[in-house]
Amino acid sequence: LTHHTALIFDVYGTLIDWESGIHTALAASTPSLPLPATWTRADVLRAFGAVEADLQAQHPAMPYSALLAAAHLALRRRLEALLDPDPDPDADADAGAGNSDRDRAAAEQAAAARFAASIATWPVFPDTPRALRTLAEHFTLLALSNASFPAPSIPDPPTPFTSLLTAQDLGAYKPSPTTFSRALAHLQHAHNAPPARVLAVAQSLFHDHAPARAAGLARGVWIDRRGAVMG
């Protein structure tokens, strides 16, 4: 480890407990969000993760706050189709259907906005602040995040991160290798840290370690967040 001079940190999932934050916010959407009663926490997170990954691939430049709201709406549609695969097209054919549809759409948009705003309350892992403060004494720290804004609790002032690169900055979401290629170029040019002296530090093999390797990072540090299911 002492050979390395810079660390690329994932934020959500590694430093921030995004799974607990997402699950809590989705549970708060019930009963307006039709989550099947038989689903476990893992089922809910996998369903959300699948929707989010689809949207990230389709809209690589969409700000993460907007993507979270869109994911909430898309998850609702998938759940409605799951629970009622053959809806009656005449069910809302009465005279008041137009107002009813508008009211429902407004309520769904409001719920999606509340869910997106919940990112500000997603909890930090207890070991995060001290670990970052310690590592910042020895390494250049770059946060590479899919979120288009830093978590309120990460980093604590004074910031342990030298740089923050987001999907909105880069025009691509992880797991695109482009994100790591751009991060490596930044470290090389701004901090004289060649790829051979950089490590990726993350929980997710899918979102981080696989694209980091594809971008040319031969080694990384896997952070074991026990029970994680989203990546």
Throw out a few tags for this protein.
2 domains; elongated; 47% helix; five-stranded parallel β-sheet; 8 helices; alpha/beta; Rossmann fold
How is this structure best summarized?
By secondary structure, this protein is α/β, with parallel strands linked by helices. The protein is built from 8 helices and 5 strands. It has 2 domains: 6-17 and 124-222, HAD superfamily/HAD-like (Rossmann fold, 3-Layer(aba) Sandwich); 18-120.
Structure in words:
The chain is an alpha/beta fold and 231 residues long. It has 2 domains: 6-17 and 124-222, 3-Layer(aba) Sandwich (Rossmann fold); 18-120. It is built from 8 helices and 5 strands. It has helices at 18-28, 41-58, 64-83, 97-117, 128-136, 167-170, 177-191, 205-214, and strands at 6-9, 140-145, 163-166, 198-202, 220-222. Strands 3-2-1-4-5 form a 5-stranded parallel beta sheet, sandwiched between helices. α7 packs across α8 (205-214). The protein starts with 5 loop residues before the first strand and ends in a 9-residue tail after the last strand. 36% of the residues are buried. The mean pLDDT is 89. Residues 84-107 are annotated as: Disordered. InterPro entries: HAD-like_sf (IPR036412), HAD_sf (IPR023214), S-2-haloacid_dehalogenase (IPR051540). Keywords: Hydrolase.
